[in-house]
Structures are given as structure tokens and as C-alpha cells.
Design a protein that fits this description.
The protein is α+β, with helices and mostly antiparallel strands and 456 residues long. The protein contains 15 helices and 15 strands.
């Protein structure tokens, strides 16, 4: 649970951005296939941030820095099946609220109140019914709800010391998981065996994964949900796995390593390009720097590397201007990280894009998730990659557009490189930045050593 002082400070920060009462719901369990077999409950991140505990079917009312909690006492049946729960007095102390009221009294405190949609459909309908206006998790907030969402974004955009410590804890567990995955690779026969080793390391710390793990030899599938592939000695294995603390704070890390424990010459050449983009992007992080410029810097480094390898022809700056790099690096350089792995993206681009900015329709910029000047206290990911995505490379329109700059014959010699991504979590500091996941190696020789470690 969050400390009383931390919760009160967060509520005071919110009050400086909005003097309107804001009511945040925690949400409810969603049934997996019938009501008594639900998915695990995870409270709304906005509720977690200000309430400091994961409590199902609850709401917190925030006004002028003060808070009230609304929830019902569990039924006797609930105690039978799920055990004892804290009393109202104990909840009031844990959540540092003025009082805990029965759920039925919520309807008496709705005057002029704003809210943010919860993701589960049943709770969202309840929000709409009580507030008598449309509330949807699929559309941007409107009216007073927009005002509330903007205030919450400004409050959560930079992290307090307690949040940073939680993200550090998530990072430590994530590092252990990746090392476990590397160590398991040379004796594993399928992708899911490596995934199991990584998720076991997370479960050993009594925490969970922050998102569905990606452990695949098909790194060109950016969010692959398959893990049943057979591991071949000439494969690269891409693992995008992150832990989430008990309070909901996330880490998000990707490493790519050779199944055999040794990169081939072509794999090493491309890996070095991605690593150079990763390192230069991180070196550029500082308060006031535009995150979009960091993305474009990484794109130029990747384009320059592809020119050096003969995959692309031309001047790197011009190639990036034409979005030729996006044939191999189609996504953005990263995103905000916090209580969610893509922090506050339930609000669309409101958190990621500064006021007045909109997504570009350019091929090389349309997937950029963060377009703001960086501020001390932000945590962002840096995750350049190189992918050979058939849907992009075989698209006749793109083949025609980039016929003069892509050397398809040279590209074919890199057919053992499906996808490489290197991702770290970075705290923006007043002086520059701190890589929170720096203890997990990125240098190819160190990666190879970790994969081969148990077999030496």
C-alpha cells in the first residue's frame, strides 16, 4: 500500500490542477466464461494512484485535496470463499481518507462531479447511469470529464519518489526474469519453456506480469501472442517481458539473443545498429528535449547503419525524411511508463501528446506514442528495433515508393534476422537521465555470455 503522506501529496497536486470534485471508480472483475470464474481483478490505475490499494467495486471522491471512499462491506458468503477483509475503519486508515461510506450513499454526492471511464463494461455502464451522461472507455472524455482527465494527466505525468521506487522494484524483478530466460534458452526446445522460466522468476517475487509476455523467434511480429515455436540453433529469440508490483507499477524490457549463444555475422551486424540507436537515444534524454526528436535521432542512426550495410542507399537524413527507415523500424521509439505499461493510454493520446499536438499521418511517425518535451520525473521506454515484416516489405505500393533506395539483394543476405528490439526503462532526471534497467546487459558479448553461462 502507498504511504499516507504520499497519497495526501498526490491529492494535493491534483487539487492544484482542478478544483472540481472528481470521482474515480476502481472497477470490477470481468467473467472469463461464467460469473464465478472471473479474470484476476486489477483496479483502475487512476483509482490506484489516489487510493493506494486495489479494492473491487469501490470509488474514491477527491475534492480540494481531501478524499472519501465508497464501498460495501463484503457479504458473509464472500468471507466464506475469500477470507476476511479490512473493516471500514481499517480501510479509512490504509487509504488515508476522511471516511468510508456505503456504496448506496454514492448517489448523494454526485453534484458537479467529474470522472474517468473505467475499462470494464459493467462499471462503465454504472458510471453513465449514476451521472446521467455518456461515459465510454472507447471515446475521449468530454465537458467536465475532459477537465478532470487533463488534471489527472498533469498530476500523473511526472512521478513522485514513491512511484519511482515502485518502478525500480518492478525493474529489478524484470531484470531477474530476463536473466532467467537467457539461462533457460540453450536447454529449452520451445519458446514457451523460456517464457515459463521468465514468468516463474516474476512469480517468485510474489508479483505478476505487467502485460502478456512476448517470447518469440518471430520478432517481426511486434506483439506476438504465440509461444509454441520450436527453437532452432540459428534463431534469434526476442523477449518482451515486464513485471508489475503489487501496487500496480510496471517495468517494460525487451532483449534479443541468439538461441545458440552466439550471434551470426549478419545478426551481429544488425544488432549493433539497433544498439547504437538505443544508446544514442538514451544519451539524448534530458529535461526539455522533445521526445519526437529522440525518435528521429534513433531513426537516423538506424538509417545510417542500413546504408553502411548496403541495405539502403542514400543520405540518412533524406531517407528518414522519406520514411524509408520505417520499412524496418515502423513503431515509435517508446512511450510513457508508470502504473500502466503504456501509462494513461486509456485516455488516448491525451497523456502522450502535448496540448495542441496530433498524430502525424506519416509512415515513419504515425505510431509515435509520446510527443512532448521531457520533464524531470517522467519515466519513458527507449526501444528501437529492426524488423523484416512481410506485410511491409512485400507491399507493392511501398516496394514501388522505395525501389530506388532499398537493395533487395543485400537485404536477402540478412534472412536470419526476423526481428531485433532492445528496450530499457529510463527516468528523466534534472541532470539528464538514469537507466533503471541498466543492470541487464545490452552489449552483444555480454548477452552471449549470459545465454551460455550455465553450459560453460
Amino acid at each position: 500500500m502507498s504511504s499516507v503522506a504520499t497519497l495526501r501529496q498526490r491529492r494535493q497536486r491534483l487539487a492544484r490542477h482542478c478544483d472540481r470534485p472528481i470521482l474515480l471508480w476502481s472497477g470490477a472483475r470481468s467473467p472469463r466464461n461464467f460469473p464465478h470464474n472471473p479474470y484476476p481483478f486489477r483496479a483502475s490505475s487512476h483509482f490506484l494512484y489516489f487510493a493506494g490499494l486495489s479494492l473491487e467495486r469501490a470509488a474514491i471522491r477527491l475534492e480540494h485535496g481531501r478524499a472519501q471512499l465508497f464501498c460495501d462491506a463484503p457479504s458473509p458468503d464472500a468471507a466464506l470463499w475469500h477470507g476476511e477483509t479490512p473493516s471500514r475503519e481499517e480501510l479509512a486508515e490504509i487509504a488515508a481518507v476522511d471516511a468510508v461510506y456505503p456504496w448506496a450513499e454514492l448517489s448523494d454526492r454526485l453534484q458537479d462531479v467529474a470522472t474517468i471511464a473505467v475499462q470494464d463494461a459493467a462499471t462503465c455502464r454504472h458510471q453513465s447511469e449514476l451521472l446521467q451522461r455518456p461515459i465510454s472507455p472507447h471515446g475521449l472524455p468530454m465537458g467536465i470529464d475532459l477537465e478532470a482527465a487533463q488534471a489527472v494527466v498533469m498530476t500523473r505525468l511526472t512521478h513522485d519518489a514513491a512511484a519511482v521506487e515502485e518502478i525500480r522494484a518492478a525493474a529489478r524483478t524484470t531484470i531477474a526474469a530476463h536473466l532467467a530466460g537467457m539461462a533457460a534458452t540453450t536447454t529449452a526446445t520451445r519458446e514457451y519453456e523460456v517464457r515459463a522460466a521468465m514468468e516463474y522468476a516474476i512469480a517468485q517475487q510474489h508479483v505478476t506480469c505487467a502485460y502478456p509476455s512476448i517470447v518469440t523467434t518471430h520478432g517481426e511480429v511486434l506483439h506476438s501472442d504465440r509461444d509454441d515455436g520450436v527453437l532452432q540453433s540459428d534463431d534469434l529469440l526476442l523477449a518482451d517481458v515486464g513485471a508489475e508490483t503489487r501496487l500496480g507499477w510496471a517495468a517494460d524490457v525487451t532483449r534479443t539473443w541468439p538461441v545458440s549463444g552466439t550471434f551470426s555475422a549478419t545478426q551481429r551486424a544488425v544488432y549493433d545498429i539497433v544498439l547504437a540507436a538505443h544508446d544514442k537515444a538514451i544519451a539524448a534524454i534530458a529535461p526539455g528535449v522533445e521526445y519526437r526528436d529522440i525518435h528521429l535521432l534513433a531513426a537516423r542512426v538506424l538509417a545510417e547503419g542500413c546504408v553502411d550495410l548496403g541495405i539502403l542507399r542514400g543520405r540518412p537524413d533524406e531517407l528518414v525524411e522519406r520514411d524509408a527507415h520505417a520499412l524496418f523500424f515502423p513503431h515509435g521509439i517508446g512511450h510513457l511508463l508508470g502504473l500502466d505499461v503504456h501509462d494513461m493510454e486509456d485516455l488516448g493520446d491525451m497523456a502522450g501528446y502535448a496540448p495542441g499536438r496530433q498524430r502525424s499521418d506519416r509512415f515513419g511517425l504515425s505510431y509515435l506514442r509520446l510527443h512532448r518535451p521531457l520533464q524531470a520525473g517522467m519515466v519513458v521506454t527507449i526501444e528501437p528495433g529492426f524488423y523484416q515484416v512481410p506485410a511491409l516489405l512485400r507491399d507493392p505500393e511501398r516496394q514501388a515508393r522505395y525501389a530506388d533506395v532499398v537493395n533487395w539483394d543485400v537485404l536477402a543476405t540478412f534472412n536470419d534476422v526476423r526481428g531485433i528490439r532492445i528496450e530499457d526503462d529510463v527516468l528523466v532526471t534534472p541532470e539528464g537521465s538514469e537507466v533503471l534497467t541498466v543492470a541487464l546487459p545490452t552489449e552483444p558479448a555480454a548477452i552471449e555470455a549470459e545465454v551460455r553461462r550455465l553450459n560453460n
